[in-house]
Design brief:
With 383 residues, the protein is an alpha+beta fold. The chain folds into two domains: 2-158, no CATH class; 173-380, no CATH class. Helix content is 40%, strand content 23%. The protein contains ten helices and 16 strands. The protein has helices spanning 12-35, 40-53, 62-84, 197-200, 202-214, 220-254, 265-268, 275-281, 283-293, 336-353; strands at 2-9, 102-106, 110-115, 118-123, 127-132, 140-148, 151-158, 173-178, 182-186, 191-193, 257-261, 296-300, 324-326, 333-335, 359-362, 376-380. A seven-stranded antiparallel sheet has the order 2-6-7-1-5-4-3. Strands 10-9-8-11-12-16-15 form a seven-stranded mixed sheet, sandwiched between helices. Strands 13-14 form a two-stranded antiparallel ribbon. A hairpin with a 4-residue loop joins strand 9 (182-186) and strand 10. Helix 1 (12-35) crosses helix 3 (62-84) and helix 5 packs antiparallel against helix 6. The radius of gyration is 25 Å and the shape is elongated.
Length: 383
């Protein structure tokens, strides 16, 4: 299954229809939360009775209303799983107009048609809406309509059937060391500078945040100020993801095997001096993009990758301020991040050539984003 996100361009009348469907879904969500009905079967039976008491619900597609029930059920299952893992979890709360931002058509109630040069998405009880298709989609199983600030998107879930396989050449491998001062430094001595998208936007973000805090709650001016702040955050998000997509697909096309450190980011961001830089770089998102684009991504332990000498394996302790690796045993002198990336690659190759169990994961012929299909992915976790 693959999800693809497309921009919608509704007219004012169509946007009102989308907003009404979103409001009806939120009303039904809050209704079932208030009734505290637990099983899916009981909620579906209650929905049938509710339609008799509330005839206006018949103006919305039945599958869309049923998916609200499954959303509640999925939320409760996630809470139970978190609670089993030791997290403190409360009950599902009521959804406000700001929090509730999507509704779903499952299996039926939608069609994609082409009228002339325009692609149109037909939704039952709403009508035709212009959609910007940047790729071909087929075997559609589900469509989720998402409202993001003042824009509408369709997230189309497709079932891809035809997998393809490609040979993985261990000689086409690379180790990548991610950082804060530099975004990455790989074992081929290629440096990618940190774009610092959040840092460059801090001044307008702080100004917009102060403006929002001064507005009276519930007022129109507060709503306008909140929208402007959200648009600034979306701009940062779009720039960052564009950079990550271009960087990850460049590595995925050049190399068959990519070695990365298995970093515990949630623990690392507890350091208040480094948290902003780590989160701005989005290491986890970069790793996730590589995992579904590249043929093989192998995670190795990060212990002493910056301390061990990549030539003689001698330990050379150094602080974060020391940016050059100088080995007093073999005389090797190079950038500390380059030395770390060489260690990452060497550890990954030892793991790959050893007797560790490596499980192939099939990926389908269509990739998730704009890039060409990449065949087979191998995923290795080192503990």
């Amino acid at each position: 299954m693959r999800n693809y996100k497309f921009r919608l361009y509704p007219t004012k009348q169509q946007e009102q229809g989308l907003q009404n469907a979103l409001s009806a879904s939120r009303w039904l969500y809050n209704y079932f939360i208030s009734k505290n009905i637990h099983t899916v079967e009981d909620m579906q039976f209650a929905l049938t009775e509710l339609k008799e008491r509330e005839p206006w619900l018949r103006g919305y597609h039945s599958k869309m209303l049923q998916m609200v029930i499954h959303k509640i059920h999925a939320g409760r299952k996630s809470g139970i799983a978190l609670e089993r893992n030791g997290h403190k979890v409360g009950k599902l709360g009521y959804a406000s107009e700001i929090d509730y931002s999507s509704f779903t058509y499952n299996q039926s109630g939608f069609e994609i048609e082409k009228h002339g040069k325009t692609d149109l998405l037909w939704l039952s009880k709403i009508g035709y809406i212009e959609i910007r298709l940047h790729r071909l989609v087929d075997n559609i199983k589900q469509i989720t309509i998402l409202r993001s600030i003042n824009r509408w998107y369709a997230i189309i879930c497709c079932e891809n059937i035809k997998p393809i396989f490609k040979f993985i050449n261990p000689m086409r491998s690379i180790g990548i060391d991610v950082g804060i001062t530099k975004f990455s430094h790989d074992s081929n001595n290629r440096v990618i500078e940190n774009p610092l998208f959040l840092k460059k936007m801090l001044k307008p973000l702080k100004r917009a945040s102060r403006r929002l805090s001064r507005r009276q709650k519930g007022s129109i001016r507060r709503r306008v100020a909140r929208t402007k702040l959200q648009e600034l955050h979306r701009r940062v998000h779009n720039k960052r993801h564009d950079f990550l997509h271009k960087t990850s697909i460049n590595y995925a096309r050049k190399y068959d095997i990519i070695f990365l450190e298995r970093l515990k980011v949630l623990n690392m961001v507890k350091n208040r001096h480094l948290a902003r830089g780590i989160l701005d770089n989005s290491w986890s998102t970069f790793k996730r993009m590589l995992q579904y684009k590249a043929k093989s991504v192998i995670l190795v332990l990060p212990n002493n990758t910056s301390i061990d000498c990549s030539r003689c394996n001698n330990k050379v302790p150094k602080s974060l301020a020391v940016r050059i690796h100088r080995c007093d045993r073999c005389g090797l002198m190079l950038d500390r991040d380059h030395n770390a990336s060489l260690n990452i690659k060497q550890r990954g190759l030892k793991l790959l050539m050893g007797h560790e169990e490596v499980t192939p994961v099939e990926i389908l012929s269509e990739s998730v984003k704009q890039e060409q299909p990449i065949g087979q992915r191998w995923s290795v976790h080192v503990y």
